[in-house]
Each structure stands twice: as C-alpha cells, then as structure tokens.
Amino acid sequence: MGSSRAKEQRAARRAKMEEIRRAEAARERRNRVITWTASAVIVVGVAGTGWYFVDRAERADRAREAAAAEPVAGEKTFEDLGRDHVATPVDYPMSPAVGGNHHQAWINCDGDVYDKEIGETNAVHSLEHGAVWVTYNDKAAEKDVAALKDRVSRTPYTLMSPYADQSSPIVLSAWGKQVSVDGADDPRVTAFLDKYVQGEQTPEPGAACTGGISA
C-alpha cells in the first residue's frame, strides 16, 4: 500500500515537473518571438530612417548642383583670357579686370581688405587662384562698404579695395565672371561669393591666397 502511494507521488511530481518545463519552454519561445519581432521592427525602422536621410541628402545635393549650374542674375562672362605673367601694365577690356595676363605676384586675398586702390595685375593673379575681388567707388554708401568689409574679412579667398573707374557702386569679380550691385544687401552678393569663391571657373584651384604681396 505504502509502495503504491509512493509511486503515485513520484508520478505526480514528474508530471508537475514536466508541466513546469513545458510552461518554461513556451515562455522562452514567446520571448524569442517577441525579441525577433522587435529586432525586425527596429531594423526596418532604422533602414527606413536611413533611406529617408540618404534620400533627403541626395535631393539637397541635387538642388545645390542645380543652383551652382545657374548663373547669378545679371552676371557677365568673359572668355579667352590670357594667363601669361608680365611685368608691364595690362590694358584690360573690362573694369575691374576679371582675368587676363597678370603680374607674377598675387596680392594677398585671404579675407584681405585694402583701403587704397591696389595693383590690378596683382589682383588678377589672385582671381586666377580662385579669389573673389569686391570693389567699390564713391557712389557706394558707407554702410554698404562697412558691411562688405566685414563680410570679406570673414571669408577666405576674397579681397576688397576701392576702384574709382567702375560704373556701378559695387562690383564683384571672379576669373571670367562679374556682377554689379548697388548695395551690400543685394542677394546676388551672397550668391556670387557662394558660387565663385574657389568655384569651378578657377584656373588654379587650391593655389595660395597668402604669401603674396600686400598693398
């Protein structure tokens, strides 16, 4: 009798342990499913977010490329510009000059602001290095001159100087490119600088704007 009861108790314990193991196994399966599902959702979310940012960056790049391909409103383009080094004055067909034969020494153009007129053949050499030359005459308002001086002083590969013999108050010149504006707040100032400071028009991109001469 006692032996029979002991067998029944052992059988009941085994059944209970088996039930516990089955329940534990079921919990583990559920946890794995939840983990896999959550991981899949995260992966899909990350991938989707990544594609979103990649696509947005690509669209921004295309927009910048399209903007860069468009000329600045009212700009003039000059072609077939000589690039020989000369030691004599050059009679440039435009004022200020935007390119052509020039002095072998460039004038410093690392945000340099000059209060007196500078050597034009030296400035043209700076344009060859990818600088933008901002010039003004006595028609330019003092506040515009001050604003442009501040802007140029903070912009590498630029220089600024007075230039009496120009028809507009303010002129921006790059190698082969030029635009005239009346004031510093004209949006074409920013557009011209953004496009032509070390722009695609530069004959010698990356050439120095320091180590030259200073007026």
TrEMBL record:
Keywords: Membrane, Transmembrane, Transmembrane helix. InterPro entries: DUF3105 (IPR021454). The chain crosses the membrane at residues 33-54. This is DUF3105 domain-containing protein. It comes from Streptomyces cadmiisoli.
